[in-house]
Design a protein that fits this description.
- This protein is mainly beta.
- The chain contains 2 helices and 13 strands.
- Strands 2-3-5-7-8-10-12 form a 7-stranded mixed beta sheet, with no helix packed on it.
- The protein has one domain (30-213): Leucine-rich repeat, LRR (right-handed beta-alpha superhelix) (Alpha-Beta Horseshoe).
- The radius of gyration is 17 Å and the shape is globular.
- The protein starts with 32 loop residues before the first helix and ends with a strand.
- The structure holds 2-acetamido-2-deoxy-beta-D-glucopyranose (NAG) (6 copies).
- One 2-acetamido-2-deoxy-beta-D-glucopyranose binds next to helix 1.
- Residues 33-69 form the Leucine-rich repeat-containing N-terminal plant-type domain.
- Residues 1-19 form the signal peptide.
C-alpha cells in the first residue's frame, strides 16, 4: 500500500452548511418527507436515556427539534429543508431505520457515541447530499453497503469503533472528495486495493487500524 498522504490525528473538518434556495415552509420536502423520516428515526430508537428525542413531536416544527437544523428563508419561518442531524452522545439504543435514506437534502449526519445496533441500512446511500457522515462509537454490525460509492459529496466518513465486518467495497474509492476516512476498530478484512493511494487526493486523515487487513 502506498501512503502519499499525511496521517494526522484530530483534524476537524469545518462543515459548510450552505444556505440553499428554499421554496416551501411547511413540512419540509416533498410531502413532508423530512418530517416522516425523522419520525421513523424516533420510532426505531428503543431506549433514549437522556430524553434527546422526547420533544420530537408535532407541537413544534421539526427544525426546532433537538439535534436538528434546517434552512429557512426567514428567521420567523419554519424551515423547508433539513440540513443537519446531530444526535451525538445521547446513548440512544436502536437501529438506524431505512427512512434515513429519504433525507435527500441532509448534508451532515452525526450519530457518534450512541448504542446503535443492527446494520447500516443500504438505503442510507440514497442520502446523496451527505458531506459528513459520522457513526463512530456504536455497535453497528453488518458490512459497509456497496452503495456508499453513490455518496460522492462525502468529505468525512467515520465508521470507526463498531462491529462492521466484510471487505471494503471498491465503490468507496469513488468518493474522491474525501478528506477524512476512519474505519478503525472494526472487523474489516481482506485486501485493500492498491488504488487507495490515488483515490482520495484531498485526504488529510486516514485511520484503518485495528482491523484485519492482510496487506
Ligand atoms: C430537497 O430540496 C429540494 C430543493 O430545495 C426540494 O425540491 C426537495 O423537495 C427537498 N427534498 C426533501 C426531502 O426535503
Ligand atoms: C412535545 O414537545 C414539547 C416541546 O417541544 C414538550 O414540552 C411536550 O412535553 C411534548 N409532548 C409530548 C406528548 O411528548
Ligand atoms: C410552523 O410549524 C408548526 C408545527 O409544524 C405549525 O403549527 C406552524 O403553523 C408553522 N408556522 C408557519 C409560519 O408555517
Ligand atoms: C454534534 O454535537 C456535539 C455536541 O453534542 C458536538 O461536539 C459536535 O461537534 C457536533 N457535530 C457536528 C458534526 O456538528
Ligand atoms: C433508494 O434509491 C433506489 C433507487 O435509486 C430505490 O430503488 C430505493 O427504493 C430507494 N430507497 C429508499 C429507502 O428511498
Ligand atoms: C460512482 O459515482 C457516480 C456518480 O458520481 C455514480 O453514478 C456511480 O454509481 C458510483 N459508482 C459506484 C460503484 O458506486
Amino acid at each position: 500500500m502506498t501512503k502519499p498522504f499525511v496521517l494526522t490525528l484530530g483534524v476537524l473538518l469545518v462543515m459548510s452548511c450552505g444556505a440553499g434556495s428554499v421554496s416551501r415552509a411547511t413540512l419540509g420536502g416533498e410531502d413532508g418527507a423530512d418530517l416522516h423520516s425523522l419520525l421513523g428515526f424516533k420510532r426505531a430508537i428503543t431506549n433514549d436515556p437522556r430524553g434527546a428525542l422526547s420533544a420530537w413531536n408535532a407541537s413544534a416544527h421539526f427544525c426546532l427539534w433537538n439535534g436538528v437544523t434546517g434552512v429557512s428563508r426567514a428567521r420567523s419561518q419554519n424551515c423547508s429543508t433539513l440540513r443537519t442531524l446531530n444526535l451525538s452522545r445521547n446513548f440512544l439504543v436502536g437501529r438506524i431505520p431505512a427512512e434515513i435514506g429519504r433525507l435527500s437534502n441532509l448534508t451532515s449526519l452525526s450519530l457518534r457515541f450512541n448504542n446503535l445496533i443492527g446494520i447500516i441500512p443500504p438505503e442510507l446511500c440514497n442520502a446523496t447530499s451527505l458531506k459528513e457522515l459520522r457513526l463512530t462509537y456504536n455497535k453497528l454490525g453488518g458490512s459497509i453497503p456497496e452503495g456508499f460509492g453513490k455518496l460522492t459529496e462525502l468529505r468525512t466518513l467515520s465508521l470507526a469503533v463498531n462491529r462492521i465486518s466484510g471487505g471494503v467495497p471498491e465503490s468507496l474509492f469513488n468518493l474522491s472528495l474525501l478528506q477524512l476516512l476512519s474505519l478503525t476498530g472494526n472487523r474489516l478484512h481482506g485486501q485493500l486495493p492498491p488504488e487507495i493511494g490515488n483515490a482520495f487526493p484531498d485526504l488529510q486523515f486516514l485511520d484503518l487500524a485495528t482491523n484485519m487487513f492482510c496487506n
